[in-house]
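Follow-up to my post from last week.
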Amino acid sequence: MNKIYIIGVGLIGGSMALDIKSINKQAKIFGIDTNASHLDEAIKLNIIDEKATYDDLEAADLVVLSIPVDKAVSELPKVLDRISDTTLVIDVGSTKYPVCKAIEQHEKRRNFLATHPIAGTEFSGPKAAIHSLFQKKTNIICEVEKTTFKLQEKALQLFSDLGMRIRYMNPEAHDKHIAYVSHLSHISSFMLGKTVIEKEKNERDIFDMAGSGFESTVRLAKSSPVMWTPIFKQNKDNVIETLDEYITNLKQFKAFMETDNFDEIFNEMQNTNHIKDILNGIQ
Amino acid sequence: MNKIYIIGVGLIGGSMALDIKSINKQAKIFGIDTNASHLDEAIKLNIIDEKATYDDLEAADLVVLSIPVDKAVSELPKVLDRISDTTLVIDVGSTKYPVCKAIEQHEKRRNFLATHPIAGTEFSGPKAAIHSLFQKKTNIICEVEKTTFKLQEKALQLFSDLGMRIRYMNPEAHDKHIAYVSHLSHISSFMLGKTVIEKEKNERDIFDMAGSGFESTVRLAKSSPVMWTPIFKQNKDNVIETLDEYITNLKQFKAFMETDNFDEIFNEMQNTNHIKDILNGIQ
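User reply:
Got it. Predicted complex:
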């Protein structure tokens, strides 16, 4: 695949472009973005070779759709309308059911592969793009059977070249489970940041007391609202379920404290401590 | 200060011992610990030079009390009973009001300085001790005026040698504010870990989908319940207040989602985004 079109040259699309260029010296990377300054920046940073438009997509070997999930749902059909029979289109969004649903009846459905690379940082835009972002990361692929076999093969080769391991899931299961290990973490982090910022308004210098533990738990509160609002909207029911369970657990912890049941407080923490072993598996 | 006694040779006490040895080649480090295997380990790791007991404390130039905060409250008076007039005793616990209260009438009150180095990792025990842990970290000192001037000077020289910057607070303000930037982060992390582990029991392979964002937000859930239970107990009222505010913010976020008020979801995140600038000040 030599003609690569990146729609949305931000953290994920940009990082993928950088790696593809390293892997395949013949590859030519075209960038499409509604944000003109991002395109200029991406050229300066040597992430893309040229700007392009949807009208150029017929020439594409690969199209990477890396834009907020609400835009992905509306743009993907237009992209599929314009590609050739041999073009592979992948998306990289954090929700999978809505995007799969949006094109289930499209005549080019078999040119599309729904993916979710579990990779990223709290930063966004072309400047956030980095080399080797996908190395040793998991890529979740949904509805693989709906993509034509030849294009599946090309996609798997690409992900292998990027250093990723593959997991297959259906879109519903993906959206349900990712709510726990990704979407809820973002909300817990945002609300922790909010709680402390609100306090700081009245009582100065709180942040002067903050250490690396606080920094770690609120890191995700730096994430982009433009990216995350549509994720929460599209995955509303699952996210509300995780929030319910999280709030219930916090209330129970508080109730144990209020009744001086510190044996249970100890148990709560000890029972969760084995997250150590679980996290050892994550890189 | 050449004769240094570390009571509790874990992450904080052990790391301090390592740095003191680097700074002062004349220093001899003695370890006191109820856990005999920790003492043996600390000798093997070259953190302490010799084991000691409370009966040896009269010879001490410096005593570092680095044990769980409930133990600190009961042990500190016994330590002060045994030291000489020129011994400096510091504690390093995450709560300051109870320990200051416990010895306010002690005849050796002026030999004691209450401190809280905002430094650490989620690990514990002598193996967790590392060099330069305190470099560029904040050390909060409480009731500095109650320590004799000569011993204040010695303590400040030590903290300066360790690379720390100093902030002065009263114990009540310390305990109130640290609840926000440290204690609440630990609870949010533990409960996030619990919520996901509970889900995993019924639906396997969730953790296979977790990335670095999840890892970051649950890092503190690896922390020691032996250390943290007494912190929550001693700082009960302040911690409950922070939990109340955190739960209220989470419920409001959930309510916005339930009523499809995604403009407010966007605002909540955008308003918290400036945590970026705040965190830039933390190292």
